[in-house]
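lol ok so funny story. i was supposed to be doing the assay writeup but got distracted and ended up predicting the structure for this chain instead. priorities right. anyway since i did it might as well share w the group, maybe its usefull for someone
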Amino acid sequence: MGHETGLGGGVRLLRSVLRRERHNYSAGEERPLPGYAASLAAFSAYTAGWATLVRRSGRPLPSRPDPWDLFLISAATFRLSRLLSKGSVTSPLRAPFTEFEGSAGPAELSEKSRGGRRKEAVGELVTCPFCLSVWVVTTLTASQLLWPRATRTAAGALTALAAADAMQLAYSTLVGKATKA
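and the output, tada:
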């Protein structure tokens, strides 16, 4: 009976093409490409939502970022991304998508993603500070455009936390060296 027509046939053809591409891409390894695609779609919608809020606010965009704001947002993104993706206290947020493996440093955990394809992709996102930082910097940047004073205050607190963490680690290293000598 020839080619199928209509929406149903088009959907089946698209699924077939996507399955073939996923198989060709993965080189025999199981990769959660549908989950990654869902993450990309979610991030696109998230960014579009922020962009809409910023545009509707009527606030003008700065001609260029202020260097101090770049420092604050960078340090805050670093600290918040690590807190969300590795922190012991934030593990309940990651638990539906991850499995505990062990400690990974002071107040940080090592976890691996678990579950089906979409759950695995979310697990990879929420345990990767580099991946999560894209979401965090988008949030901080948009919120700074909408609520600059409040965002600078929060970013300043996160920056102070990052500096305090660095000092704690440096102190622990110095104490360790002093007690071994």
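The radius of gyration is 22 Å. DSSP finds seven helices and two strands in the chain.
back to the writeup now i swear
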